[in-house]
Specification:
It is a single chain. The chain has 178 residues and is α/β, with parallel strands linked by helices. It has a single domain, classed as Lysozyme-like (3-Layer(aba) Sandwich), CATH 3.40.80.10. It has 4 helices and 6 strands, in the order E-H-E-H-E-E-E-H-E-H. Helix 3 (104-121) crosses helix 4 (150-164). The longest helix is centred in the middle third of the chain and has 18 residues, at 104-121.
């Protein structure tokens, strides 16, 4: 089971609106200029980014070492996918998967997390950012990128669901507020 770090206190602010319902997840890539993979640094960067409303965009981030960092409770949201942020959790995987592969640890954590969330919601409802209709102003976004293979991810999550049975996500430190 991956390590989950709670960084809600450092990332959440009054600009993160309330989420009425949570109906799935959107997978993103995210990189900081120096290559660091830390949700608090990402939050500080995104809060200052024009057009994002002064708030953290992603609910969860996965570091290269596989640690899952929770930035927002599930009842609040940031602006991570145009038209979809209010009802979908934003999961950012640190790296640029247009040019690099996710680490084994990232892949394992992402599969585990999505399997857990799918069991909790009793449905598999995740998609890549660029798979969602009108989710970006950039038609060539390629997010999260070809190297984070969504078809393979769906297959692995289905296998993960069979293995876990009932969700252990709550026991791991994930803050579920809906």
């Amino acid at each position: 089971m991956p390590i989950i770090e709670n960084h809600i206190a450092a990332c959440l602010n009054k600009h993160n609106p309330t989420r009425a319902k949570w109906g799935g997840e959107v997978i993103h890539r995210f990189t900081l200029n120096d290559g660091e993979d830390d949700v608090v640094r990402a939050s500080d960067f995104l809060k200052a980014y024009p057009g994002l409303g002064g708030c953290m965009s992603y609910d969860l981030c996965i570091k290269k070492n596989g640690i899952i960092q929770q930035a927002l409770p599930t009842n609040r949201h940031g602006w991570h996918a145009k038209g979809w942020s209010k009802t979908r959790l934003g999961i950012a995987v640190f790296g640029d998967f247009r040019t690099e592969q996710p680490t084994d640890a990232q892949w394992e954590s992402l599969v585990w997390l999505l399997a857990q969330l799918s069991v909790m919601k009793n449905a598999i409802r995740f998609a890549a950012h660029d798979q969602l209709t009108n989710a970006s102003n950039d038609p060539d976004k390629k997010c999260p990128g070809y190297n984070l293979n969504m078809n393979l991810l769906h297959d692995y999550v289905k296998l993960g669901i069979k293995e876990i049975g009932q969700s252990t996500l709550i026991k791991s430190g994930f803050t579920l507020e809906v």
